[in-house]
Amino acid sequence: LFHLQKKRRAATARRQHLKSAMLQLAVTEIEKEAAAKEVEKQNYLAEHCPPLSLPGSMQELQELCKKLHAKIESVDEERYDTEVKLQKTNKELEDLSQKLFDLRGKFKRPPLRRVRMSADAMLRALLGSKHKVCMDLRANLKQVKKEDTEKEKDLRDVGDWRKNIEEKSGMEGRKKMFEAGE
Q1: For residue 39, how far is the Cα from the chain centroid?
Q2: Of 34, 71, 69, whose CA–CA distance to 49 is shortest?
Q3: Residue spans of the chain under pLDDT 70
Q4: Domain range annotation of the chain
Q5: 24 — phi, psi (to 5°)?
Q6: Which residues lie in coiled coils (predicted)?
Q7: Region of residue 128 (left: phi > 0; alpha: psi -120 to 50; beta: else)
Q8: Residue 34's Cα: distance from chain center in Å?
Q9: Which of 74, 113, 138, 143 is most buried per CB count within 10 Å?
Q10: In sequence order, what are the residues at sequence separation of 6 or more whose Cβ sits closer than 8 angstroms to the Cβ of residue 55?
Q11: What is the Rg, in whole angstroms, of the alpha carbon atoms belonging to the chain?
Q12: In 3-state terms, what secondary structure has residue 69?
């Protein structure tokens, strides 16, 4: 048991040592990359941005300003073009990833939450706030006038159904029904 604990401690110590060594290596690599980027930046600036020499006369200063403005405009146009290309590429990437997602057929359904909402609030949410719709269901119903139809009169005239059955029962009742049919 003591031997296993000692082995575990040794393994843990070795793991910690390896972690610290890896971190030290990573720090030195990051410092080297930063120094290389700085050197690259200085080289680029020396190549593309020559040191500024200000001329003495007003005419030469105006010429220099015009050149600088022209250069700024061309650089701005390039920046705009690259931005548009980037946006177009991003849009294509989104479309392609959506197509890929659709082709896989794995649709992730978001978890739905129960929401207590009245019919008016639901319509307002669906149609927007500019549509004022009232969900008074009784207001939308048609008014129906009750008309006396012949069937209803017959039913009222019949009265008690037992009397009606007794009248129609037997041979005399059938005879009455037969004569009424003709």
Answers
A1: 45
A2: 71
A3: 1-4, 106-108, 129-142, 144-182
A4: 1-51, 54-105
A5: -60, -45
A6: 27-106
A7: left
A8: 40
A9: 74
A10: 61, 63, 64
A11: 47
A12: helix
